[in-house]
Amino acid sequence: xxxxxxxxxxxxxxxxxxxxxxxxxxxxxxxxxxxxxxxxxxxxxxxxxxxxxxxxxxxxxxxxxxxxxxxxxxxxxxxxxxxxxxxxxxxxxxxxxxxxxxxxxxxxxxxxxxxxxxxxxxxxxxxxxxxxxxxxxxxxxxxxxxxxxxxxxxxxxxxxxxxxxxxxxxxxxxxxxxxxxxxxxxxxxxxxxxxxxxxxxxxxxxxxxxxxxxxxxxxxxxxxxxxxxxxxxxxxxxxxxxxxxxxxxxxxxxxxxxxxxxxxxxxxxxxxxxxxxxxxxxxxxxxxxxxxxxxxxxxxxxxxxxxxxxxxxxxx
Length: 316
Ligand SMILES: C[S@@+](CC[C@H](N)C(=O)[O-])C[C@H]1O[C@@H](n2cnc3c(N)ncnc32)[C@H](O)[C@@H]1O
Fold this sequence. Notes:
- 24% of the residues lie in helices and 27% in strands.
- It has 316 residues and is an alpha/beta fold.
- It has two domains: 2-148; 164-312, Rossmann fold (3-Layer(aba) Sandwich), CATH 3.40.50.150.
- It has a seven-stranded mixed β-sheet, sandwiched between helices.
- Helix 5 links the parallel strand 10 and strand 11.
- Helix 2 packs across helix 3 and helix 4 (164-174) crosses helix 5 (193-200).
- The chain is elongated, with a radius of gyration of 22 Å.
- Bound molecules: S-adenosylmethionine.
- The site of S-adenosylmethionine has 22 residues, from helix 5 and strand 11.
């Protein structure tokens, strides 16, 4: 048995968006289904590709990849367990053998999670087999969930749409959330999943949309509905906000222009916005503009579709 740590990283594509990740990582060492590796290959140091600077369409990044040479399934499992408890299998080649190794490891948390919760602190590793006796793994990964994947215990009664789940995920990732009495602007609010989630936290919500808000959500305490084009409302029209949210379906530039007004005004403290891609393509230029806003980050959440989430938290 032999472990060799590698330079570089491996990037596991967001579900269904390998093509966007390939745009971001044109130069790589190997690709195993949806796992793109920019790693040093032992004995071929010159083949190490330049690590990409801005990568967003991932579900998980393998931060510290290694190669493990092993003889048997039990030996591979023993070697992984000696490093840490949690390992998510990513079966690509030798899928059955991969899963037999996984079966010999401690079980992973798989139950849907109750919102809110704090991000697990225990490291979650990942591994895949490159051949019968060689495993690529990483003990450190960007996501604390197995292959970036998890689910919430759903509320099937309250929210009028399932979009609230991506807001929940963003708030869990942010590690903070609107508190009772804080003022939220929710642009593109209809039918009202996000507004429902925010009002359920006790925050006061100004929901804005050109379409009507679900009646039950509109009737919630501390919810005010403005039937309006959000982008023709200036920050000074809306006043100070603790949080600005947007899930508006629009071209990313339109959202960027509106958010720029908020940033210039200094009237908002925290932002969580969905950058929705229009058509099949990916607006990298505007995504990079968002990512360049100081202190902010752009991610693809597990509950995101053809969209990215931009967040800026005060004091971050
Ligand atoms: C994906 S839906 C939002 C879903 C919502 N977050 C929820 O949880 O139910 C996008 C919304 O953006 C709204 N929208 C599109 N352009 C808009 C604009 N310029 N101003 C306000 N709302 C807009 C649409 O009417 C639509 O209701």
